[in-house]
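Q: What changes when iron/sulfur cluster is included in the input?
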Amino acid sequence: MQIKPEPTQHWQKSLAEGFNDLAQLCQYLEISPTALNHPLTAPAVFPLRVPLSFAACMEKGNPNDPLLRQVLPVTEELIDYPGYNADPVGDLAANTAIGLIHKYHGRALIITTGACAINCRYCFRRNFPYAEVQLTKSRLDSTLKYIKQHTELTEIILSGGDPLLLNDERLDELIIQLNTLKHIQRIRIHSRIPVVLPERITPELLSILSSSSQKIILVLHANHANELSPAVANVCRQLSQNNITLLNQSVLLKGVNDSVLALCTLSEKLFNLGVLPYYLHVLDKATGTGHFEVSTQVALEVYRQLQTLLPGYLVPKLVTEQAGAAYKMPLN
Ligand code: SF4
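A: The predicted holo structure follows.
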């Protein structure tokens, strides 16, 4: 479709007005900074970044809120945990063309942007050199040429960063280009935006996605049921109405969702919004994230109980990613 040049949109203003100062976030949440557990007030890298829509889902006055924990910089990030490194899943070794990661048979992933609406402290790409490998206008031709040559590819994953932070014009252009490739059947978008910045799901964006001749799958990223606000429910409904398949992936995080109750509630609520629980990832060992690690023993026990309590279609696959492996490995 033809997209008009955009003035700054409401969602872009919301994005710019998000929290990037811990004192202001504490004030909004009515929490004394002294009540926080070892906060890191000015991280040298990977700063605090939280949209208001996500902060609004946190419980006021609770320094241990599971959503706050996901975004709160803490001094434990500076601990050098054994086995943790900057590229825990071997993404850089699989960067076979600029802007594209091709690890698995039949699907390849485009790093569309390094930008995110939120900085999740557990992120496995928090140390990723986006500037060197992300898709740019000048790299698009070589990325598309690579996909054209690899006719065994049937699915392209748009990732980042967050692909829904591309403006409408760039996203539309990319989808149109992919639509010309006959061997590509599906475009899968990995995005935390519908959960953390639901105002980004505009009528124009829905129109771009629903205009694709290739099936669009949107893999959301929610870790806790409290993230699924009425606004998120509303955009899930709109996405479903536009024939977009909705899945969710979560990361198993200590102090956030490492309990049977938290994971059961998340799966039930996702399903009520038309979203199927897809993956529950074991933490990737990225430098700065060790305080989120859940032991294998606890992960397996929680998962066993989850399988007992939920019907199979509400149990996400518990997986771990190993650099060089041909697929994500089931932990159990
Ligand atoms: S939105 Fe995704 S890519 Fe961005 S910081 Fe969070 S987990 Fe990482």
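Observations recorded in class: The two ends are 45 Å apart (CA to CA).
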